[in-house]
Write a structure and sequence with these properties.
five-stranded antiparallel β-sheet, alpha+beta, about 15% helix, 1 helix, about 30% strand, about 90 residues
C-alpha cells in the first residue's frame, strides 16, 4: 500500500489536502490493523485506523480516531483497545 494511495483516500475522506506524507504504524499484535497520521493543510492532525478485514482501503473503511500520543500503543489482542485512543 503506497503512501500516495493512502494520502488520496484520506483526502477523499476529509475533503481536504494533506500537507506532508501520511505516517503509518502497523499494529505489532494484529497484522490486519494499521494506524495513520495525516497533517491537514491549514488545519490539525487527523488520525485513522484501517482494518484490512473491513475491505480494500477506501474512505468507507477508515475509522477516524484520536490518539493522545504517536505512535499508538496497542493491547496484545486488538489495536481497537488502545490505551491512548478515542473513536471520533
Amino acid at each position: 500500500m503506497g503512501n500516495s494511495k493512502i494520502k488520496e483516500v484520506i483526502e477523499e475522506y476529509t475533503g481536504r489536502k494533506i500537507k506532508d506524507d501520511v505516517e503509518s504504524y502497523k499494529d505489532p499484535h494484529n497484522p490486519n490493523v494499521t494506524a495513520f497520521k495525516a497533517n491537514i493543510i491549514n488545519s490539525d492532525i487527523i488520525y485513522f485506523l484501517y482494518n484490512k478485514m473491513d475491505g480494500k482501503l477506501s474512505p468507507d473503511v477508515l475509522e477516524e480516531v484520536e490518539f493522545e500520543t504517536w505512535p499508538p500503543t496497542s493491547d496484545r489482542k486488538n489495536m481497537y483497545n488502545l490505551e491512548n485512543m478515542r473513536i471520533s
